[in-house]
């Protein structure tokens, strides 16, 4: 009786330890399938991917300490890791991201960044990984579209696909990513409009969409994103007017709308907001520079160049607390350039190519 009990007990312990002390064979197999689809010729980062336990010393892999399930894949082609210093070079990899990673159902972060040569699509099955918090594949040659049902990733905080060759549109479901804090789609070929319900991304603090092929208006709903501090929509083909509500956002500090087809006036709210980097250059913005500067106006950068602004530079601009870099060149401005401390350090290049501006620092007297 007692021996049977002990026998059963030891069997139970044995099976417990064998499930919980190493990564499950199925996850090891998924990682090996992932590795097989990639080719990394210079550093040998996959040399450590051997042995039964993928949780033990496999480069870039970490597991949950309790469940021994694979939790993180963290492979960066530009890093301070000794493996890079030894090789005296940054990483380079070709191949593609195998859909086998979708079998790692406890995956929390997937970072495959700056390998420059990885091509192929982001497997749509990615959106079935319920624990995924970070998806960072910046700096590769990925093609195809952002998975249509990406919005299912309710825990996703970081979505970074910048510097790839992603096409298609911003999926409508993206606005369902209620945990998303950091969205970086820069430098791809994403087309279509910014979804009207973009403002549902209530946790978003950085929205970086520059260098794509986005068209249509800037959705008014963006101004509902209370935590948004950095909005970069530059170098697209956005049109319509700048929503005045952008100037009333609580923490918006950087607003880059340069290099689009935006028309209409500059909302006065932008001038007396908390925005400190404002680039509206190279659009079709018209009307006057709002006479709305005051002590709240603190600009590291205010670039209004290459638009259709006319009239005078408003006198109130002298009341701004700080204007580090101002550029109003290539417009149709006229009249005397105001004097005052925010201006004293500016050079003529900030004011050239207007209709009839005069006074310091231009050589033309009034
Ligand atoms: C944009 O991405 C391409 C790769 O798709 C890269 O070669 C290029 O340097 C990137 N440009 C910028 C300005 O980041
Ligand atoms: C967003 O989530 C809601 C609620 O879960 C769902 O009804 C809707 O279909 C989702 N939208 C998209 C475009 O996936
Ligand atoms: C503003 O945007 C324009 C056009 O994209 C760019 O050339 C310029 O360098 C930007 N200005 C500043 C101060 O960064």
TrEMBL record:
Keywords: Hydrolase, Leucine-rich repeat, Repeat, Signal. Transmembrane segments: none annotated. It is an enzyme of class 3 (hydrolase). The keyword RNA-binding does not apply. Residues 25-64 form the Leucine-rich repeat-containing N-terminal plant-type domain. One of its GO terms (molecular function) is histone deacetylase activity, hydrolytic mechanism. Residues 1-22 form the signal peptide. InterPro entries: DNA_repair-toleration, Leu-rich_rpt, LRR_dom_sf, LRR_N_plant-typ. It comes from the Eukaryota. Its EC number is 3.5.1.98. This is Leucine-rich repeat (LRR) protein associated with apoptosis in muscle tissue. It comes from Handroanthus impetiginosus. The lineage of its organism: Eukaryota, Viridiplantae, Streptophyta, Embryophyta, Tracheophyta.
